[in-house]
């Protein structure tokens, strides 16, 4: 990627805030010896990738936690679809689609739920209930950003406030410059930018073009 040429994260201030926020979250997970990190949904995938890059910057080749994503399962939780589904069926569904995750949860490991942005906390509350049903002994929560006036209690918050470009990163085609990048290359380009943000090579100047 050309130096200072950002398409998805063009705001240097937001890049700096993101780096600090993920550094705070990663240090919390590391210092508390948390071995299992679960992304709340597909929208949290950029946060997970940035988490991994930040971990490598801070701790090198030290063993990382295991990562899992609930993907569309989390979408069902957030929309209340599961409220109409019997508990036994919900657990069977999770067991079917995420058997390795369930096994780790039931082994007694502390779980860290990583969210991209939290406003009402409804999805997070549903996720905590889900892992309690699965037999989790301890659940920790964290997010990159949280509503400015939100009173939801989490174990670690990267930064209060809304990061518009990071929040929109799940909709890769909605960025002004994205149309110039072939569809199949957009995810790769976004990861390159996140890698720069989280690594030692971070460049704060330059707004892209």
What's the helix and strand layout?
Layout: H1 12-31, E1 36-39, H2 45-59, E2 66-69, H3 72-78, H4 87-97, H5 99-106, E3 111-118, H6 122-133, E4 139-146, E5 156-160, H7 164-167, H8 186-198
Parallel strand pairs: 1-2, 1-3, 3-4, 4-5
Helix pairs in contact: 1-2, 2-8, 3-6, 4-5
The strand line-up of the biggest sheet is: 2-1-3-4-5
Rg value: 17 Å
The string of secondary-structure elements, in order, is HEHEHHHEHEEHH
Any idea of the CATH class? Alpha Beta
Distance between the termini: 13 Å
- The CATH topology name reads Rossmann fold
Give the proportion of residues in helices: 40-55%
- Name the CATH architecture: 3-Layer(aba) Sandwich
Number of helices: 8
Name the structural class: alpha/beta
Mean pLDDT: 80
Biggest sheet overview: 5 strands, parallel
Low-confidence blocks of residues: 171-175
| Overall tally of structural domains | 1
Principal-axis shape equals: globular
Instruction: Note the beta-strand portion.
Output: 5-15%
Number of strands: 5
Short descriptors:
Rossmann fold; 209 residues; alpha/beta; 43% helix; five-stranded parallel β-sheet; globular; 8 helices
Task: Describe the model.
This protein is α/β, with parallel strands linked by helices and 209 residues long. It has a single domain (12-198), classed as 3-Layer(aba) Sandwich (Rossmann fold). The chain has helices spanning 12-31, 45-59, 72-78, 87-97, 99-106, 122-133, 164-167, 186-198, and strands at residues 36-39, 66-69, 111-118, 139-146, 156-160. Strands 2-1-3-4-5 form a five-stranded parallel beta sheet. Strand 3, helix 6 (122-133) and strand 4 form a beta-alpha-beta unit. It is globular. The protein starts with 11 loop residues before the first helix and ends in an 11-residue tail after the last helix. 31% of the residues are buried.
């Amino acid at each position: 990627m050309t130096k200072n040429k950002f398409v998805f994260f063009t705001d240097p201030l937001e890049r700096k805030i993101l780096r600090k926020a993920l550094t705070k979250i990663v240090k919390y997970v590391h210092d508390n010896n948390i071995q299992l990190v679960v992304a709340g949904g597909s929208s949290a995938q950029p946060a997970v990738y940035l988490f991994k890059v930040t971990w490598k910057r801070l701790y090198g080749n030290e063993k990382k936690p295991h990562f899992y994503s609930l993907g569309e399962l989390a979408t069902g939780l957030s929309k209340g679809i599961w409220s109409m589904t019997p508990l036994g069926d919900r657990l069977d569904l999770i067991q079917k689609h995420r058997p390795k995750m369930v096994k780790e949860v039931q082994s007694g490991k502390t779980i860290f739920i990583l969210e991209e942005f939290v406003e009402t906390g409804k999805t997070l509350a549903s996720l905590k209930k889900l892992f309690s049903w699965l037999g989790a002994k301890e659940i920790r929560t964290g997010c990159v950003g949280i509503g400015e006036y939100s009173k939801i209690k989490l174990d670690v918050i990267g930064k209060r406030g809304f990061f518009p470009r990071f929040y929109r990163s799940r909709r890769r085609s909605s960025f002004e410059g994205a149309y110039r990048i072939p569809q199949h290359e957009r995810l790769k380009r976004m990861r390159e930018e996140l890698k720069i943000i989280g690594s030692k090579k971070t460049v704060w100047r330059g707004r892209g073009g």
